[in-house]
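Researcher: Please translate sequence to structure tokens.
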Amino acid sequence: MKKIIITLLLVVVPYAAILSQPKDDPVVMTIAGTPVTRSEFEYSYNKNNTDGVIDKKTVEEYVELFVNYKLKVQAALDAHLDTTQAFRTEFTQYRDQQIRPSFVTDDDMLAEAHKVYDQTKTNIGPDGLLMAGHILMRIPQKATEAQQQEAKRRIDSVYTALKAGADFETLAKQVSQDPGSAPRGGMLGWFSRHQMVKEFEDAAFALQPGELSNPVLSPFGWHIILMKERKQLEPFEFHKDNILKFLEQRDVRNHITDRKLDEMVKASNGLQTKENLLQERADSLSAVDSDMRYLIKEYHDGLLLYEISNRLIWDKAAKDEEALARYFNKNKKKYKWDEPRFKGMAYHVKDEADVKAVAKCVKKLKFEDWNEALRTTFNNDSVLRIRVEKGLFKKGDNPLVDREVFKVRDAKVDSVKGFPIDATYGKLLKKPKDYNDVRVLVVADLQDEMERLWVSDLRKKYAVVINQDILKTINKHE
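Model: Translation complete:
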């Protein structure tokens, strides 16, 4: 969730990049004493108002959002949230995701591809590659003499048929006991030395294209091998694209980066660390690449905004039960339902006496305490006495509630095996009586109010100066 939120936040220019701002990049606003350049604002505005955005903002509308964002980040900086170890660790991880790929060049990847190709060619050896198929008659481990003789008899019969003109692939599909190759007419694909058991390999490589082997015994059983084609490995250029794709899938870029960083640390004789090298690379890239500069800053400030918003607004509002209750009681009129709700439970019991016992158990308890009371009273040992579904139901949510409470005549209630008696207990509410009845909405509304008050305080605390003349030139200059 945090990463999704951060990538949707506004972005601003990093500290180290201020020195590298172009001279024709005027200040469009100053927030809490920090200047915001036109390019910085344009980057943020254009990123968050692309053609695909449903709620596109005008420049003037966006200024309010941007200023509020910057004020919150400033509040996080003043609270020193950027000095915590948790923040530093997470920001470094985000930053490095952007920076590490810059250590790897196309030539590096090409060199790795050549290594893979050369090693493959060495492994294949001078005998090259074979395309062959086989028909297998398996011999089980610890096979009896009779089983061995039967396998030999069957393979000899197949060999005789092939010599008489039978089609190899058709026969392989019918009788071969290799489940992998049989559906393909016995075809195994290309293989080289040391990929098959020795007995099979020696026989296959002794054949010429189109030649059929005599029955060959291996640890798996009896084989008849058809050699289809022989070739040497194609040149590097033929395989280059596939090898590079393979390397990307194996995350070789990260391995190259680690190797290069280790070499650079070693070459510095202890004067550098990986962290220093990554920071230097981030600074150098930010100085020449504004997109990289803003992206790194986006992560930096986005993490700060998430943390301070969570501390002061999101998490605080969600957990403050007294504040939620006060807000609901003060704003009851805004919370309505388009149809009644049943606040209670649908339950199933084995014994008729438990119908009333369940209701009596929870009658004087708070709704949120029902589950524990029912568990300890009725299901506290290995024998379950009741099955319960508790909640805030609207029509259509639960068939038993539909039938018993909402009086839906055709409601189909499936019987619960072992619990033949059905019942409901609770209250039918025309409107919410408690903030927990609409908790999600109340939490969201309380968060909105707390944020509004927070932003109001920030606006009073920090000075904001907008250069209207420069603002009018956003996306309208050379």
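Researcher: Any highlights?
Model: Residues 3-21 have pLDDT under 50 and may be disordered.
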